[in-house]
């Protein structure tokens, strides 16, 4: 990844009109390129600039009034767009004709089967349309970082105060300090602290739903290490700024300057020590708490103590009433503050003990006067009597605390396992938000999710490229991508439930103060909301925040009787807060933007273990169905949704239904066991040929999509495979949960995705070979066994009847077999999963499968003759 050659080159800065030091982005090849040059790259073979006229207009009227054009727009070239659209229409006609033909030729031996399959075909056609139509006019938006720099950075960016950039509050959520390793979370935080954004405009809020002291103390350690790490990153323009990833690649000699090599070694050493300290934290805390003098009182559970001798208000290592996960006080602690003059006192809103945000003797010369962004630890109060609303509840608590402490115009949230991979990413999002065209109406900017830990062939389709690079890019040409849970920058007021500028009746500032029933009873919060509505820069140091308000807004009871989670903030009552939150905002008439960068903006980890991955899919698809059966149903909700955007939301909420029909089809091979020939539809050969044509057309359209989205064949294929696996396991389970919920009103459980099941092993992909059986895997296994068995039976049958069968019968058998093989290919990743470690040599299957076919075939033949002898026909 990053080599010193790249780094030394990266350390070179260029002068642009403002005489600014512009960090260049280094890539693996050692060549450097500014992100803005990528605009030209975006153009290429399939894309063409779509905003020439707008640009010309701006130049003509010399509009350099601060309302700049901060991104470029690209649309698909006619040469690909027209065939693409034509093919979609042709397929639509073909599907309709096929359907009409099936109805007219309602000849089958099993009529219920025929009727179900016609219903299935109708559903396939309909859901294909829902998926396809919103892709009619994809648009790419490429941020113009140089323009942002020209308009917003007046003086050298290092001295943050001189910049006009808007404030950004960053939220990181974590829920478990074991399942979500503290080291990953700290890496995420370090990458945020080191991002290229003025320190006094940036604040990072870490929400810890486990209320663990380990996490707080880890933050204090991270803040100390940041005093070295941040200036190092800035001085040498390193990427990525998450140290674990950065140090993964050993530096090689070459052109690297001696200075760089020295700095590198020093920082690496300090990082190793930082990691050791992190690792020791649980022990340190346990020892500290174990000393007799610090016992809460005789006979009581052993309390957990902070370094400053105070008792930790969160969960204890030795959990007890009011000090356990799910039941503890709310905690807000400022670890780093960029307003040192402001006091944070009070019982739980105290300044962090360990780190101070001031210039340290450790600074690199180049970064004298270093300022770090604000860093705040938040653990909302947990009380078993209140629903804490999972991740959405945590995000809303962060939204409120940040409103009181920094109240930035924009907020961006990350899962604790995602880090900033491109230090320019926040600026890129800001470009899209501040642009004079639709900037003001843009509620959020979503980045694609990218993952580090996925196995090279992406066995379980974790990269989801078809979705991230195709579907989302296409939505960018409508009202915008949906909110995907992480790596998404919001305009704060859009989360507060207000209308976008073009739909507002009156100026926001002239609106009467909101009643407490909307934002809750904290007056400081309500005040901050009206301040935010102005979207003007706050130039003075904010006044000290009343500690009582801070405590109030993280209370478990705060949401009760307010609009939080309903029309304000992230939406509650659903397993997937993301889609529905985005839906509500789009429904108000806001738009969103999709931002892909040449160097991935953010990266994270994905579950590469099949069981874990399927649990995730159950949550997503279950959440989708929940949305369908709620008042946020895309057919009725969201007044200002554009038509195709609505279609796309409808698709996102009903797609799991498809699995019922897929499951039915996938079980068809059992028909080989039936003595007579069963035909879903007659004439069978014609039916299969028509079917093949419609399937082939899907892939032709897919091929054109791959062209414009840059998705590879393997990604496309993995997408197909995983849809099949999901359709025989996770999706039917989600449907089942939904049916249960409709009857019992109990929602789908948010099971935090485990990020380390096989930590500590040398094999980076060890998790891939771990597999825990769950009931949901049974149908998939059954389908696989049925298909393998069916091929064996088919072979046996062929042997027995070869001489008797007519040509038509032989054709039918061959076509049936083709279908079996297709299903087996689609289930191949599942077969590897159940092989466990044996899957390291998939070649085994080449021996195993034919052997099974032969055995089953032989058994069939043997049985046939045996039975024929016993019951002579
Ligand atoms: O009560 C909870 C539960 C979860 N989380 C956090 O939510 C995030 C996502 O949870 P995870 O288990 O990692 O879910 P994934 O399946 O990996 O997440 C995907 O799916 C989620 C929706 O289901 C989205 O919110 C995520 O952004 C998206 O990455 C993590 O940071 C958790 O710490 C909390 O803070 N509190
Ligand atoms: Mn995750």
UniProtKB/TrEMBL annotation:
<feature type="binding site">
    <location>
        <position position="415"/>
    </location>
    <ligand>
        <name>Mn(2+)</name>
    </ligand>
</feature>
<feature type="binding site">
    <location>
        <position position="390"/>
    </location>
    <ligand>
        <name>UDP-alpha-D-glucose</name>
    </ligand>
</feature>
<feature type="transmembrane region" description="Helical">
    <location>
        <begin position="84"/>
        <end position="103"/>
    </location>
</feature>
<feature type="binding site">
    <location>
        <position position="391"/>
    </location>
    <ligand>
        <name>Mn(2+)</name>
    </ligand>
</feature>
<feature type="active site">
    <location>
        <position position="209"/>
    </location>
</feature>
<keyword id="KW-0961">Cell wall biogenesis/degradation</keyword>
<feature type="transmembrane region" description="Helical">
    <location>
        <begin position="781"/>
        <end position="801"/>
    </location>
</feature>
<dbReference type="GO" id="GO:0005886">
    <property type="term" value="C:plasma membrane"/>
</dbReference>
<feature type="transmembrane region" description="Helical">
    <location>
        <begin position="654"/>
        <end position="675"/>
    </location>
</feature>
<feature type="binding site">
    <location>
        <position position="209"/>
    </location>
    <ligand>
        <name>UDP-alpha-D-glucose</name>
    </ligand>
</feature>
<feature type="active site">
    <location>
        <position position="578"/>
    </location>
</feature>
<feature type="binding site">
    <location>
        <position position="180"/>
    </location>
    <ligand>
        <name>UDP-alpha-D-glucose</name>
    </ligand>
</feature>
<keyword id="KW-0328">Glycosyltransferase</keyword>
<dbReference type="GO" id="GO:0009833">
    <property type="term" value="P:plant-type primary cell wall biogenesis"/>
</dbReference>
<dbReference type="InterPro" id="IPR029044">
    <property type="entry name" value="Nucleotide-diphossugar_trans"/>
</dbReference>
<dbReference type="InterPro" id="IPR005150">
    <property type="entry name" value="Cellulose_synth"/>
</dbReference>
<feature type="transmembrane region" description="Helical">
    <location>
        <begin position="813"/>
        <end position="831"/>
    </location>
</feature>
<protein>
    <submittedName>
        <fullName>Uncharacterized protein</fullName>
    </submittedName>
</protein>
<feature type="transmembrane region" description="Helical">
    <location>
        <begin position="843"/>
        <end position="867"/>
    </location>
</feature>
<keyword id="KW-0812">Transmembrane</keyword>
<dbReference type="GO" id="GO:0016760">
    <property type="term" value="F:cellulose synthase (UDP-forming) activity"/>
</dbReference>
<keyword id="KW-1133">Transmembrane helix</keyword>
<dbReference type="GO" id="GO:0071555">
    <property type="term" value="P:cell wall organization"/>
</dbReference>
<feature type="region of interest" description="Disordered">
    <location>
        <begin position="339"/>
        <end position="359"/>
    </location>
</feature>
<dbReference type="GO" id="GO:0000139">
    <property type="term" value="C:Golgi membrane"/>
</dbReference>
<dbReference type="Pfam" id="PF03552">
    <property type="entry name" value="Cellulose_synt"/>
</dbReference>
<keyword id="KW-0333">Golgi apparatus</keyword>
<keyword id="KW-0472">Membrane</keyword>
<feature type="transmembrane region" description="Helical">
    <location>
        <begin position="110"/>
        <end position="130"/>
    </location>
</feature>
<feature type="transmembrane region" description="Helical">
    <location>
        <begin position="687"/>
        <end position="706"/>
    </location>
</feature>
<dbReference type="GO" id="GO:0030244">
    <property type="term" value="P:cellulose biosynthetic process"/>
</dbReference>
<feature type="transmembrane region" description="Helical">
    <location>
        <begin position="721"/>
        <end position="739"/>
    </location>
</feature>
<keyword id="KW-0808">Transferase</keyword>
């Amino acid at each position: 990844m990053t080599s010193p050659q790249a780094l030394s080159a990266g350390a070179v800065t260029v002068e642009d009109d403002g005489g600014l030091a512009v960090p260049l982005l280094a890539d693996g090849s050692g060549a450097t390129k500014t992100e803005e040059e990528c605009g030209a790259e975006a153009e290429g073979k399939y894309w063409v600039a779509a905003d020439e006229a707008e640009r010309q207009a701006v130049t003509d009227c010399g509009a350099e009034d601060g309302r700049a054009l901060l991104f470029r727009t690209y649309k698909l070239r006619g040469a690909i767009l027209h065939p693409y659209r034509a093919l979609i229409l042709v397929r639509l006609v073909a599907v309709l004709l096929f359907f009409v033909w099936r109805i007219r030729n309602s000849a089958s031996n099993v009529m219920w089967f025929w009727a179900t399959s016609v219903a299935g075909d109708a559903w396939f056609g309909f859901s294909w349309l829902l998926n396809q139509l919103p892709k009619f006019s994809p648009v790419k938006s490429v941020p113009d970082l140089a323009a942002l720099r020209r308009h917003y950075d007046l003086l050298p960016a290092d001295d943050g105060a001189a910049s006009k950039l808007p404030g950004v509050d960053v939220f990181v959520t974590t829920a478990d300090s074991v399942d979500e390793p503290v080291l990953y979370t700290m890496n995420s935080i370090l990458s945020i602290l080191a991002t290229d954004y003025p320190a006094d405009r940036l604040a990072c809020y870490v929400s810890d739903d486990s209320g663990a002291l380990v996490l707080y103390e880890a933050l204090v350690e991270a803040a100390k290490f940041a005093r070295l790490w941040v200036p190092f990153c800035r001085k040498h323009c390193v990427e990525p700024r998450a140290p674990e990833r950065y140090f993964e690649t050993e530096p090689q000699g070459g052109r690297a300057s001696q200075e760089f090599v020295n700095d590198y070694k020093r920082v690496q050493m300090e990082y190793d020590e930082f990691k050791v300290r992190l690792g020791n934290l649980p022990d340190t805390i346990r020892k500290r708490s174990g000393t007799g003098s610090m016992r809460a009182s005789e006979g009581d559970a052993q309390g957990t103590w902070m370094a400053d001798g105070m008792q930790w208000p969160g969960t204890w290592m030795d959990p007890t009433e009011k000090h356990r996960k799910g039941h503890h006080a709310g905690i807000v602690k400022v670890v780093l503050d960029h307003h040192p003059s402001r006091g944070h006192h009070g019982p739980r809103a105290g300044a962090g003990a360990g780190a101070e945000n001031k210039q340290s003797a450790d600074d690199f010369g180049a970064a004298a006067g270093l300022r770090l962004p604000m860093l705040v630890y938040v653990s909302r109060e947990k009380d078993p009597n209140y629903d804490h609303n999972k991740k959405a509840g945590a995000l809303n608590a962060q939204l409120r605390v940040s409103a009181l402490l920094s109240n930035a115009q924009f907020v961006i949230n990350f899962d604790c396992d995602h880090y900033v991979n491109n230090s320019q990413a926040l600026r890129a999002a800001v470009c899209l938000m501040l642009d004079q065209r639709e900037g003001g109406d843009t509620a959020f900017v979503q980045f694609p999710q990218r993952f580090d830990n996925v196995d090279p062939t992406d066995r379980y389709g974790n990269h989801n490229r078809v979705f991230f690079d195709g579907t989302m890019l296409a939505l960018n040409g409508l009202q915008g991508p949906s909110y995907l849970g992480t790596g998404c920058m919001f305009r704060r007021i859009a989360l507060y439930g207000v209308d976008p500028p073009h739909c507002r009746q009156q100026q926001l500032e002239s609106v009467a103060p909101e009643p407490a029933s909307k934002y809750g009873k904290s007056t400081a919060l309500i005040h901050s909301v009206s301040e935010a509505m102005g979207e003007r820069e706050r130039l003075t140091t904010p006044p000290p925040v009343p500690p009582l308000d801070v405590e109030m807004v993280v209370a478990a009871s705060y949401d009760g009787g307010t609009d939080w989670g309903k029309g304000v903030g992230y939406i509650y009552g659903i397993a997937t807060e993301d889609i529905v939150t985005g839906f509500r905002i789009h429904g108000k008439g806001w738009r969103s933007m999709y931002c892909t960068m040449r160097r991935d903006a953010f990266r994270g980890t994905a579950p590469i273990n099949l069981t874990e991955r399927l649990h995730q899919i159950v949550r997503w698809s279950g959440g989708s169905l929940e949305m369908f059966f709620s008042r946020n149903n895309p057919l009725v909700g969201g007044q200002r949704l554009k038509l195709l955007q609505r279609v796309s939301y409808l698709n996102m909420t009903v797609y799991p239904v498809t699995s019922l029909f897929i499951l039915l089809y996938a079980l068809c091979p059992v028909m080989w066991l039936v003595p007579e020939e069963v035909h879903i539809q007659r004439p069978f050969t014609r039916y299969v040929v028509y079917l093949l044509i419609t399937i082939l057309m899907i892939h032709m359209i897919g091929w054109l999509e791959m062209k414009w989205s840059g998705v590879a064949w393997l990604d496309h294929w993995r997408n197909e495979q995983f849809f099949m696996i999901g359709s025989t396991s996770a999706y039917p389970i989600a449907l089942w949960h939904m049916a249960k919920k409709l009857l019992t009103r109990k929602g789908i459980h948010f099971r935090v995705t485990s990020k380390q099941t096989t930590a500590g092993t040398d094999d980076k992909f060890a998790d891939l070979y771990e597999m825990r059986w769950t009931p949901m895997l049974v149908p998939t296994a059954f389908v696989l066994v049925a298909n393998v068995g069916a091929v064996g039976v088919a072979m046996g049958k062929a042997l027995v009847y070869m001489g008797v069968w007519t040509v038509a019968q032989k054709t039918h058998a061959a076509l049936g077999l083709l279908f079996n093989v297709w299903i087996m290919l689609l289930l191949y990743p599942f077969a590897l999963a159940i092989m466990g470690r044996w899957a390291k040599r998939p070649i085994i299957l080449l021996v195993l499968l034919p052997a099974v076919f032969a055995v089953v075939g032989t058994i069939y033949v043997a049985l046939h003759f045996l039975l024929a002898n016993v019951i002579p026909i």
